[in-house]
Amino acid sequence: MKHFKLWMFLMAVPLAGTAQGLKGSDPIPLDPAVKTGKLKNGLTYYIRKNAKPESKVDLRLVINAGSILEDDDQQGLAHFMEHMCFNGTKRFPKNQLVDYLQSIGVKFGQHLNAYTSFDETVYFLPIPSDDPAKLEKGFEIIEDWAFNTILSPEEIDKERGVVLEEYRLGLDADNRMEKRFMPKMMYKSHYVDRFPIGQKAILENFTYDKIKKFYRDWYRPDLMAVIVVGDIDVAEMEKKVIAHFSSYENPKNARPRKFYEVPNHKETFVAIESDKEADGSQVRLVYKDYDTAKPIVTVDDYKKRLTERLFAVMLNKRFRELTNSPTPPFTFGGSSHGGIMARDKEAYSSFAMTQDGKQLDALKTLVEENNRVKKFGFTQGEFERAKIDVLAGMENAYNEREKMNSAAFVGQYQGNFLDKEPAPGIEWTYNAIKKMLPDIKLTDINSLVNGYIKDDNRVVVITGPEKDNIKKPTEQEVLAVLNTPSDNLKPYDEGTTAVGLLRKEVKPGSITKKENNARLGTTTLTLSNGAKVTYKKTDFKNDEVLLEAVSFGGSNLYTYEESLKTEWAQSGLSQAGFSGLKLNDINKFMTGKIARVNPYIYEDTEGLRGNAAPKDMEYMFQMIHAYFTDLNFDTEAYEGYKKKQISMFANMGSNPEGYFTSEFRKFTNKDNPRYTPMFPGDEDWARTDYQLAYNKYKERFANAGDFQFFFVGNIDDKAIEDFSAKYIASLPATDKREKIVDLGIRSLKGEHKKIIYKGSEPKSKVLIRFRGETTYTPKEDLAMQALGEILTIKLIEQLREKDSGVYTVNASGGLSKMPHGAYRFTISFPCGPENTDKLTEAALAELKKLVDNGPEAKDLAKYKEGELLDYKKNIKENRTWMSNLKNSYTEGENPEDILVYEEKVNALTAKDIQAVAKKYLTKEKIVGVLMPEKS
What architecture does CATH give domain 752-931? Predict the structure, then answer.
């Protein structure tokens, strides 16, 4: 279950607008593929058949009630009620609900979930649809959630500890600063007093009648929607909805479902907040709309939303260009018009992540760029590119209309029920947008800014770390920036547009050999320069082709000094662009085209990773060619990248959990001479050598013959053969073949406990790690993975449900083969400082039961059901096949093993799992504990 902080600025893809054959006043239709209706008691339902993933259905129960409706003595109980729905219902007493769902392959937290926000509470239940009994149980569960949760005193008291642990997780710098600036952001609004997590004292002490009252008042048919999307029969599902939900009545004299406003204000509010544990600096400029937000109902409403989207696309491209400059004003910046927490209020917002102490400079840039648009508008070139980009995104969605996962539709219908968001379907949307885009004028876009930017209803929020060497801006300085005249502003410089991605003539090579693997459905091409291309044609998605290229070697082939000087520079090399083109030139050229490639150098491999739409696949191949042969060397671009990285990493160690992870890794790698810190400091950047990193990159990518290229997706045979011969076979190559190098570096050995002190809040974290050398076998690897899943089930039962000591807990493990055989296993959980020893002992006790006795049959069955359910879904995903092909190559394993994975999972026995537990998890371990700083 999740508690979401709602800080939502709408960036949704627009759907449609005025078009030939459509009148502006026409209502937007509901997708004809969805069956919708309302029962006599007011409950709304949406039902749609969608066969991806196969044999599965997504059920969702949506309650149009959240924390905003709590009474003063109920603060936090909307969210608490969400928890209680998993802790005992009429048909599933106590924890039988989670136990049953796990038995049919539904994983708690991963598949089964829920969230509570200010205005709604939503329950997610994905279940198999090919078994009538399981399907019926699914409807019984959501019916029980809606009307038959038991709320026994015993279970309420047990769950207090779990909810308080979730409350504890939120105690951080962001939370502290948010509490201070939110009264200004949501001035005189009830939302300020109703954050979903609630008040600690109320969570600890509320009487049972208070939560029962909330359940009676707000869990009622007229505030509910049931959504059913999946591989189902629509008529049958409608009968089930009617059968399970028609008999319930709304309470007499039902409390009105009130909606709370966010009042307007003449003042400009400025909030300047800092915290010693803040891990970044930010500035947010918000211009709240005067009027109450209205639902998008008509075609004209759609046109307005599309116009707003085009505005945001153009302005955000300008921000992106600034961040790619040699002197970036901020690490990231963006603007949009959309919702701010409350349903009735929208705002135009600009946001930037900055260097320490540079929020005022960033605010100046945000104001300047907004004023530049206000004074000069956007250019015709920007407008045309924005329309191309929006249409390309819609075309991509349209091409995938038959391949969309059910979850995407469920989300649309939830928005339709709660916020009257339109859900007309992709066919109507795509056709309408194609027709209406030409009707939108640049003047329509440019006029928006006059309604956005004003002198009242305005809020500026500045947050960042509290340090002695950082001067906080004053409110007067902020107001001065807002009121700076725009007299000296110049129009946006359109610049020039590149005519292509390559500047050098490409002399094609050839294909010397072609082999097919009928079992895998792959084709392997051997090229004239020795490079190999393996591709798999799939029909999982219509508009996707994935790329992975890999070669053995990596930075393990560098000397110790070279590795120190290049570690942090390597990821910035691509910031220089290629073929003499800067990043901004490349981005402009790629308008409307879907293709990207990113190079990397890891410790033992180097390679490329990317994706493209089939129609744009040639651009992906051109990028491959350019990254091998024509990477730019640009010191200014690199320095700009370095400034952004320094800004991003500067305060990550201030966050207690980030600091703990960093220090624990440092401790366990103290015998590793090549260890580099998680968060580079001034010394690390000072010794970085851009020229050396560039030279080593050229060295690593000098021999294409040592690379294996993989492509998975909707691939045309002739196209990939032609592109491979032209752009890959033409790459420079030699006969030299490198291997993965094992430098002999090993993790810390022995039994250790490391306590790390950081943070002001009463928050701790425990990390128990087993790691060492072994001989890799696929069977033991699978058994270790299963052990992690099964132990997670037992730890949830013990540490969460029985001890009420944690909100979340996880165990995971596995074996690896390269660069040397090794095993790994980790148990981790956050908790209260006073409980670290007790819960560590409890976790290790659960592990010892598996070592001594092996898993219980029911828990092994739960693992298998969940794993096979995931496998059936994942085997029809391009990324699964890409991961299998690439990992099988680097690990020296047989890629055909994926075809018998079900057999391997089914063959796994309790003895197999007990054997790896005994073999690996009775050895030395390292325990890391995060504790708050001593006062």
Answer: 2-Layer Sandwich (3.30)
